[in-house]
Amino acid sequence: MANLRTPICELLGCEVPILLAGMGGVARWELAAAVANAGGFAMLGMVRESPDLIETEVRALRAATNRPFAVNVIPSATDPALLERQISLCLDLGVRAFTFFWDVLPEAVDRVKREGCLVLHQIGTVEAARQAQDAGADVLITQGIEAGGHVHGRTGAFALAEAVLDLATVPVVVSGGISTGRGLAAALAMGAQGVQCGTAFLATSESFAHDYHKDRVVAAGGEDTVLTDVFVLNWPKGAAVRVVGNSVTAALGDRLLGHDPDTLPREVIAQDMGQPLLRYSTDSPMRHTTGALEEMALYAGQGVGAIRGVIPAADRLRQMVREAEACLETLK
User: Fold this and answer.
1) What is the phi-psi region of residue 210: left when phi exceeds 0, alpha when psi lies from -120 to 50, beta otherwise?
2) What does pLDDT average to over the chain?
3) How confident is the model at residue 3 (pLDDT cuts 50, 70, 90)?
4) In this structure, are residues 214 and 121 in contact, taking their beta carbons and an 8 Å threshold?
5) 256 φ, ψ to 5°?
């Protein structure tokens, strides 16, 4: 693993520059602990979650690993009062790193930087990279259009990373469609300091995603994913997501984008622990979800074609490390 160490490993306290994406609902303590203990950098996906759940997850993660980690929240898509409670609780619990995404809110970055915390900011455009860096972000995660889940930009991962590397004075991490060590090697070869992976870790034993979601990811190829903003309830208008195509997206034909959440019907199609879930919502199926799972948002990036089974997260990370080392040795 020593061949893969970059300066960001020292900054984040990890052994290899592979970051677990802070997938809302999916990246709970079990997955975060598995990635951290295997040498990667973990993020808890606590997007718009209650402070009670955040405390439970942080304490469980700490009991399972002594490795550093970040908590992922989304300031611009969270009620300000809830965001304040989330951040205050994390600080009270001694959380030392945060991941932010979507629009850059300088006041949120400043809020945690004043407490001495690291800020990793995922961005989808060059302008957002400038804004995040000016606000004080310590790491820029360049998310390409190939990424699964919410996608902020429309540029490919490596094209965006190359443009951001030209202006960045902080470490750059590439994200979007990367699920193998070849992608990690490519990122390092171009001057980035690591990669962030979501879909690759969604399809693991420790992921909190529903088995149905994992099975659809394993069965899919990159051409089976679609970018659409029809799964937009609970998010701002125009918030596009990449998902495995299903009956909902098939019914849209070529009208995948341009949907207004105010005009979409509210129809309950599933339940999760007593919570009703609506058709067209951003909810993806979790372990305990029941109902019309096929009609829900099944997030996946274009790197799904390289994911051929549900395996422990540590095995997937080590597999990526071996592949990356082999690629870099070939370059020598």
Assistant:
1) beta
2) 97
3) confident
4) no
5) -75, -25
pTM check: above 0.85: yes
Phi, psi of 191 (to 5 degrees): 110, 0
Render pLDDT for 68-86 as a digit per residue (tens, 0 to 9).
Answer: 999 999 999 899 999 999 9
> What structural domains and CATH numbers belong to the chain?
6-207+306-331 (3.20.20.70), 211-304 (no CATH)
Task: Provide the Cα torsion 213, 216, 221, 225; round to 10°.
Answer: -60
Distance CA 308, CA 215 (A): 10
Tell me the backbone φ, ψ of residue 164, rounded to 5 degrees: -70, -35
Q: What is the pLDDT of residues 253-304, one digit of tens each?
A: 999 999 999 999 999 999 999 999 999 999 999 999 999 999 999 999 999 9
Structure tokens at 279: 């058709």
Which tokens go with 73?
A: 């929240």
- How far is Cα 249 from Cα 84, in angstroms, rounded to an integer? 36
Residue 237 in tokens: 């208008």
Beta carbons of 272 and 223 less than 8 angstroms apart: no
